[in-house]
Amino acid sequence: MANTKELKKALGDIPVFLIGDDGYDEHIATWNTYTDRKPIGVAIPKSTAEVARVVQAIRRAGIPRVTVRGGGHSFEALGLGGADGAFIIDTVQLDTLTSDPARDTITAGGGCLLGQVALYAWQHGRKMLPMGTCPTVGLAGQIQCGGYGFYTRTYGTLTDRVLSVEVVTPDGRVRTASDKENADLFFAIRGAGTGSFGVITSVTLRTNDAPVEGVAVFSLRWSLDRQDIPDILKKLHDASVASPLTVNPMVIIWLGVLEIAGVILEDSAAKLDATWKALTDTLPAADTSSLTPRDLIDTVADIGTTQTSAPWYADLRDLKREGSEHKRFMKIKAGFVPTLLPDDFLAKLAAFGQTQPRSGVRVQLLGLDPERIPSPDTTSIKVRGCPWLMGMSVWLPVAEYGAETEAEAKRRLPWLNQAYELFYPLTKGGYLGDDDYDEANHGRDMMASFYGEHLDKLQVIKAKYDPSRLFSHPLSV
């Protein structure tokens, strides 16, 4: 039988908070009202050695189930167990950053947030990494699912930049995983890890020089009340896929508008102007239009404040993991689209989009480079070669909706589900980075949808490193 009190005593100076302890509620606080998990306790180690001590003590105490919390942005709260009754290893204190700009490498602690890593890379040699859109997402979590955002079409995924990972495996051993060492573990972690294989304590990644000139954020918007929305959506689709790879577009339906927004990453102001003109010349005149030249690092904050549900950090120096200070309801679905979208589908999407509630919901298409496929591909990313990553969400800030937040969410969820089902026949299943238990609905195999053809291999690796399934949650391998 598990003995959490003996575990706490054994860990001595490593902070442990159990149910009923002062500080327990603070250390399991989350921003998403959609999920409400009740872990049996949480430990907060501050070094790799302490993580190993925690895992070893957990095994001796007979704790049956453990999960890892990093940035805390799992929509099903997998970092808090994904269901009640897990013990949490919280990596928030593992936030050390070092770099070697001359060798284009950066090493980040397993608790670092994307925005913190981006800022450090910029400040140390004007370097960058392609990463997702929200700066408060955890680095370690994102490398375990792909990492797609407004730099991906130009520079690829964050996962593909990983050179090595330090991980405390479920047996309590500290291991290095790379192409040359524990290669099977390296494969599993990069793209389909979901915390299934242990605690990531640090990650070393390959950076690149950030473009110095020719960088800008852009937005074009058309009112959904216009009669020509179907034609505009078709033109946005075609212009996005035809644009040079320096254009990183997202097509969005939300807030009563059809929008194309993103980042252009050229290497000169002249090329930026030419690329912008080529893009806008193919489109109808927008109701609103903006092109704002920025330093690369400023685009990270711009994206975070304009295109995510966490617009709190205009200054990346202020970043911290979110707790309960900005409560909101958020439910999200996403999937890979392996082909260009047919005209008849775009017409249906345009008509459906015009029925969208004018607040609290969003449908988006993030443009990818379908030709960017590593050879050999040694990651467990589920699918390559897709021109689009689609997604949709319901998000409602409690500060705005108050006591009506849950009721308003329930009103919007049927629309969200209809949007996903409209896309589903054109997808290759769900995207693991936007976890959603509803993927098991309609007779679907949730695990096959999220892990794809790699699932059997991943299960073999799981049995090797974690035969007792100590590290587990409802979506773990």
From TrEMBL:
Its cofactor is FAD. It holds the Pfam family FAD_binding_4. Residues 35-210 form the FAD-binding PCMH-type domain. It comes from the Eukaryota. Keywords: FAD, Flavoprotein, Oxidoreductase. One of its GO terms (molecular function) is oxidoreductase activity. Belongs to the oxygen-dependent FAD-linked oxidoreductase family. PANTHER family: BINDING OXIDOREDUCTASE, PUTATIVE (AFU_ORTHOLOGUE AFUA_1G17690)-RELATED, FAD-BINDING PCMH-TYPE DOMAIN-CONTAINING PROTEIN. This is FAD binding domain. The lineage of its organism: Eukaryota, Fungi, Dikarya, Ascomycota, Pezizomycotina.
